[in-house]
Design goal:
about 220 residues, 3-stranded antiparallel sheet, single chain, alpha+beta, 4-stranded antiparallel sheet
Amino acid sequence: MRALCQENRAKRTVRREPWLWLSPQLTDIHHMEEKLEQERLLEKRTLILHSDRVEVKVSDRKSEHTEFFRFEDISNDKTFRRVKSQPNYGLYVLSRNASIILFFCTLFGAIEEWSWFFALFVSATVFFIIHAFYSASYIEILTAADKPLTLLKYDPTEQAVEGFVDSMYERRNSYLKEHYYMPSDGSSNDGQSLLKQLLEMNVISQPEYDLKVNPAKGGNVSLN
């Protein structure tokens, strides 16, 4: 086991928790996928639950990228963040400049009616107000990676998002229990450290922990 730890430690290129040196080989990520699609203005998020990780696809007006979060990296810590949207200055400036042009055209008689000027002026004002006061709420789940796993809190609905998060934790716990708890050795220091972290993450219960560390105390706890 010590040799396996050293081998896997050398392969890691990002920061991991110590017990993740024992990471098993990844399974088929296309098994039993569950998807959540979120969209607001020019931002679209697609979250996919795989058998061993969460895939997050994000596209906006600036870029499009995909991130993966392994179940081993996902913690129980969540924070909530509200972001105020920046105005769409391109659309606002276009409407504003058109309003100015029409204002002078009307002023010097090139256009007889003021209705075009007022229509564009009001449009420019409405565009600015909508974008200036529009905000979005996010759920950020802390991970061992450099970035948190981020979801829109209310899209499509708060209940749908909460259901997806619950499914993610349920799948994460099942995965960690199968790949780390079941084969763990509670008689070794490394095994006890691993089991302690699984207990702190609520992946296993106290009786399940005791069953591995102190079988006599664990009693007849079922491993299924």
